[in-house]
Design a protein that fits this description.
Helix content is 17%, strand content 29%. The protein has helices at 78-94, 161-167, 170-176, and strands spanning 28-29, 51-52, 59-64, 100-109, 118-129, 132-141, 148-158. A five-stranded antiparallel β-sheet has the order 3-5-6-7-4, covered by helices on one side. Bound molecules: decanoyl-CoA (MFK). Decanoyl-CoA (MFK) is lined by residues 6, 32, 86-87, 90, 99, 101-104, 130-132, 155, 157, 159, 164, 173, 177, 180.
């Protein structure tokens, strides 16, 4: 992965271990919002990622490239692939049970991804320092050990629910997603 210093954890950054009381290995992670472009089941053209954690620390999901996701004819749009990486990374940091948002996302595109391809996505955390989480993801073609088509590195920033209340529709999140306290 070619990455900048901004997405590289500083020396000594703690790599979190699976949280006590967090999701058990094998748990399917629900969508955080039904209309989310990345994971929403009600989004008509979204990515429909349904993620699970095999070990409580990493996240896996599959994304099948559809007609709505094209850039060049019959090939996935790079921005859509970046969205898939953003979403699976967002799901991996959600394992820590705190709200985070993407601050920076860096993406390497290694292979073209034709319509109809299933990308096998995996994301994990390389360290957390204060509010900053350093994360990484990859997308492999056709199988969990298939050729790597996309790699991403990201810096996510911890926020509180006031972020969503101030800038978005916190009631819509809270109505669907009962893990977060809206007024802690
Ligand atoms: C309820 C669950 C919802 C889950 C949703 C998941 C969806 C999937 C993920 C997404 O797509 S989120 C949507 C896209 N992202 C955004 O809309 C975020 C927009 N940006 C912001 O709201 C603010 O810039 C942000 C909250 C990220 C930071 O603002 P703050 O005022 O809270 O913090 P500050 O600017 O002081 O930065 C905190 C630290 O992070 C660093 N930082 C922030 N943005 C950075 C950046 N872009 N690059 C590098 N470093 C960055 C910053 O330098 C600083 O480092 P230090 O603590 O060492 O001084």
């Amino acid at each position: 992965m070619t990455r900048s210093s901004l997405t590289t954890p500083p020396a000594g950054a703690a790599v979190p271990s699976p949280e006590a009381g967090g999701p058990e290995p094998g748990t399917t992670l629900g969508s955080h919002y039904s209309r989310c472009f990345g994971c929403g089941t009600e989004h008509p053209t979204g990515l429909h990622l349904a993620a699970r954690t095999p070990d409580g620390a990493t996240v896996e999901a599959e994304f099948t490239v559809g007609e709505a996701h094209q850039g060049a004819p019959r090939l996935a749009h790079g921005g859509v692939l970046a969205a898939a990486m953003d979403e699976v990374i967002g799901m991996s940091v959600y394992l820590f049970r705190k709200p985070y948002v993407t601050g920076r996302l860096e993406t390497d595109y290694l292979l073209p991804v034709p319509v109809g391809t299933t990308l096998h996505l995996r994301a994990w955390c390389n360290g957390i320092v204060g509010r900053k989480a350093y994360l990484e993801a990859e997308g492999r073609i056709g199988a969990p050990d298939g050729p790597v088509a996309v790699r991403a590195a990201a810096l996510f920033i911890e926020v509180d629910m006031a972020h969503f209340a101030e800038h978005g529709d916190v009631a819509a999140i809270a109505a669907e997603h009962h893990d977060y306290e809206v007024n802690p």
